Amino acid sequence: MGIHGTWLPAERRPDPRGLTSAERRGGRFSRYLPPRLASQDVAAQLDRDVREDALEVAAEISVVSAQIDDATREGIFPLLLRSESIASSMIERIAATPRDVSYAQLGDSTPHLGNHDALSVARNVRATRVAIEALAARDSWTVEDVELIHQALAVPGVRPALREVDVWIGGRTPVTADYVAPPADQVRPLIADLLRCIDTSGEHPLLLAAVAHAQFESIHPFEDGNRRVGRALVHAILERGRVVRSGLLPISTVIRRREREYVACLDGVRTDDPDGTVTGLNAWVRFFVEVARDATDQVRSVQEKVHALDLLLADKAEGLRSDSAARRLLPVLREQPVITAGFVADHLAVSRVAAHRAVDSLVDRGILVPGTGRYRRAQVFQAPAVLDLLDDALDGHP
Hints:
Blueprint: E1 6-12, H1 21-25, E2 27-33, H2 48-67, H3 70-91, H4 98-104, H5 116-133, H6 143-153, E3 168-169, E4 179-180, H7 187-200, H8 205-219, H9 226-240, H10 251-255, H11 259-269, H12 274-316, H13 325-335, E5 338-339, H14 341-348, H15 352-364, E6 369-370, E7 381-382, H16 384-395
Antiparallel strand pairs: 1-2, 3-4, 5-7, 6-7
């Protein structure tokens, strides 16, 4: 037994009804069967400097997290949750602006301006929140817990459960694919084994998150949405392990800038050569730790910008009664920077008249502006200062 996997030879039969010549020809290919990890000390294969760097970065993350007061954390979390979910979706070529995603999150009351990508990212926001808030509170995880994240992602046309079909990355068929995941009948036992590893290994959560993400991506347990679910699972591991406390480490924001290296490092772990596996594992964990370090710098930057945003909004809101609907709407804008009067009425439990007055009050103070561009006729209002901060967080530059 070892931490290396096995390439399984397979063959695709010719399909005379195929759309391409490759589909019609069929051919041979290999599926990758990852190793079982629960009974192995995977972290023992890591070089000393990789472990030391990981522990140093983890300590740095914990210090930054502990320095954030509750009020600031309440402002940072919804902003990072949205920017991280947008970045994670962008890695999968699903692109939408913070404004488009915020509009999509208004729900079914405004479907006429929604777009597929924005709605998909909005669901990814929900899936990441489920991973952090639901799974992180549990001492042990089941296959159904992982499926819960995927169900929240709600990929259109995709079965919201472990796959029962073959999947691959790249190419129209497994013969031309860049990577073919393990057979469907191996998915459930592999995921169950991975969850036992996560629950019982005793390894430091940052190293565990790195190993678990690589294994999850190799298993590719769903028909679609695997990498988004895998990155959401990383957040759950870090939160449960108290590396991050009631917050979020923007790993996808950093990975988006190093996407080719991300894919190459994941590919490097998939080998049947024992020595090659150790080399690939160290390269992957080293990359993951570097990403975590850069993401920590990003949290510091966002913390400073949230503080500046609070000062700006407080200055513009001066004179508003503390119990007024307009004042109560201010913290809501961090979570939902695009709003309608109907949303305000429902969220604050006030009348439509009071909601319109609150919106008008914030418009007069320059906190809200009417929707622009494709939203100018949609009776929506947006908080430009919050959307600007989201754009900065998405760029990922401290």
